Amino acid sequence: MPRLFLLAAVLAATTAIAAPDNPPVPLPKPPQADRTPAAGPPVPAEKPKEKQAPAAPEPEKEKETAAPAEPPPPPPPPVETEDRAAFEACTAELKSLGAAFRTLPRIDDGNGCGIDKPVAMTRLSAEVAIEPEVTARCETLLQLAHMTRDLIEPAARLGLPDMGRLKAVHQASGYVCRKRNGAETGKISEHARGNAVDISALEFEKGPVPMKIAASEAPDLAAAFQRTLNAAACLYFTTVLSPGSDDAHRDHMHLDVMKRTGGYRYCR
């Protein structure tokens, strides 16, 4: 027992000597893997995304439609059938005037062009030729023959007394399949129906007299003669386009027998 008390006293004294004045500070524990890291500065929470209104649907594009096609032009009328009795009366009258002509087979060139009973003429009377030979309807040539006998010859004796006797009428166009004024489009010409003839000049014993523009103020007899033809031709033909009436008729006279409502005539 005394030994045990002595050992305890020695141990107590030893502990009292070794203990420092300040007790040791425990070291911080190393961070554990599962510990939450130190929080940084507070991060503001994300604003909730605003709900956007649904985009308005794009207006439907107007469907592109092709321009309506132009309606096709009406088909040209067929070649007009001529009355046989009227035709025979016409040719009989031509013979009585001393005209030289021959009848031809029916012409049908399509597109409305043609003559049911065409006539090819070389002389308007025993005294006056038509050059070159012209093909047209009998009615067209009969009116020209009458106008030559009743108007051109007596007017020339007064207006062109120094030119001598009328020998020939020069024609620039009879039957020809084409549009008016030779255009690509438009109405068919009366030439294409055999209803028209163009006069370019008159041939006298002393030479030719061309169809030309006659100013209204021109004082000479030649101009008076041309103006007389321009006006009086409308007594025989339903259409008269005198020289200078438009750009297409500057050097010839157009004559035709086109039928119009009420007997209307177009002369200029």
From TrEMBL:
The keyword Signal applies. Residues 15-82 are annotated as: Disordered. It comes from the Bacteria. Residues 89-268 form the Extensin-like C-terminal domain. Residues 21-31, 69-79 have a biased composition (Pro residues). Pfam families: Extensin-like_C. InterPro entries: Extensin-like_C. Keywords: Signal. Residues 1-18 form the signal peptide. Residues 46-65 have a biased composition (Basic and acidic residues). This is Extensin family protein. It comes from Ciceribacter thiooxidans.
